[in-house]
Amino acid sequence: MKKIIAIVVCVAMSVALFAACAPATETPSAEASTEASASTEASAEASTEASEPAASGEAKTIGYYKDAADDYYKAGYEVFLECLKADPETADWEVIDKVGQGTAQEQLAAVEDFITAGVDAIVVVQNSPEITAECITKANEAGIPYFALTHAPSVPAGGELAGFVGYDFVETGVMAGEDALTYNNGEGVKKLVMVEGKLGQGTASAQSLGFLQAYEEAGKDIGGTANDVAVNKTEGGADLQIVQWSSGDWMADPAKKVVADVITALGADGFDGMYVQNDEMMDGAIQALEEAGLNPADYWLGSSNGKEKSWKWAEEGRVTMDVNQTPALEGDLLYQMLKAYFNGDEYRKYVSPYLTPYNSSNVTELTLVPYDATAYMELRPDIVTDINDPKFEDAEALITFN
């Protein structure tokens, strides 16, 4: 039985080369170089077999693109691989994994490479909805099914999306906003620092919108409608001031700098809460607070992702709340979609995994889903994973159909 081969390639291209239609230049990461040196023969075999699309019942070759070397994307990918390996019907599938550095051109080039290689299906964690529309068109023209993961795509007119798995990030934001409203004995967070993720992907703006919707639905003055405040990034109103809008790009170091700058500019009393939209950025925010001599427990700190380290933060009171939003479930549902597709079975095409909010008072009472692939596979028999279970919600409304 063949082993699943993950060929990790960080694709780096200049815009000039891309515009000139020159072959894409690939710059392997250190991890990719290590893996490539250990499996040169296997990689060559994967490329050869990928040039001939597999018939039904044969081993499949999947092209899998991630927009960046983000641990969220990596966690979903690793669970996807584990699910394939655990199933005798998919254990010999091969996966060509490309990792970009956050540009639209890299996503497009990766999809073109997958098409040239003749893969049986394409999976993409997108850079932006706009470039995804072009990628879907190219995949459709080549007769290759296109699956989107994590970030809701934009489907061009007449285009076909084989599947999408991604969380409802607006609902994630609503959960954070509802918790923020309970802060300070129900007075709510009044002066908020909003640390968004990577702008342009859609998920960051969705979380901000959801947070503001919670305040709006509670009848609070936020200086306009939730949508207007989120889009225009205004300063808020009488019941909620947004004292700082910033992006931490989903990473700890940029978020740490953002929060350090906020502390310098506004002082310790210039804010009473921070919505830091993922756990890596929250890691940086906590570091900045503590290095400035401030106690994170003195502020409302809300996040999403719900990684294992955040469970400990919540127990210790270093974060106020988080939302368990693990990519492990995304990877599992993706595996189920692809298997059903190639078996010719009916399947739910657009699905959102379930969310579990938690805080310092209930974190030890809940069954939270881990990021770690090994821990997830051990817990898998005891949690809801069947794509047909109603606990997984329909996600068609999250997708833009042009």
From TrEMBL:
Q: Where does the UniProt entry say this protein principally localizes?
A: other
For this UniProt entry, which residues form the secretion signal?
Answer: 1-19
Q: Which PROSITE patterns is this protein grouped with?
A: PROKAR_LIPOPROTEIN
A matching Pfam family: Peripla_BP_4
Query: Which keywords does UniProt give here?
Result: Signal
Where does it live in the cell? Answer: Cell envelope
InterPro entries, A to Z? Peripla_BP_I, SBP_2_dom
Q: Name one GO molecular function term.
A: carbohydrate binding
What PANTHER family does the record point to?
A: D-ALLOSE-BINDING PERIPLASMIC PROTEIN-RELATED
Q: What is this protein called?
A: Periplasmic binding protein domain-containing protein
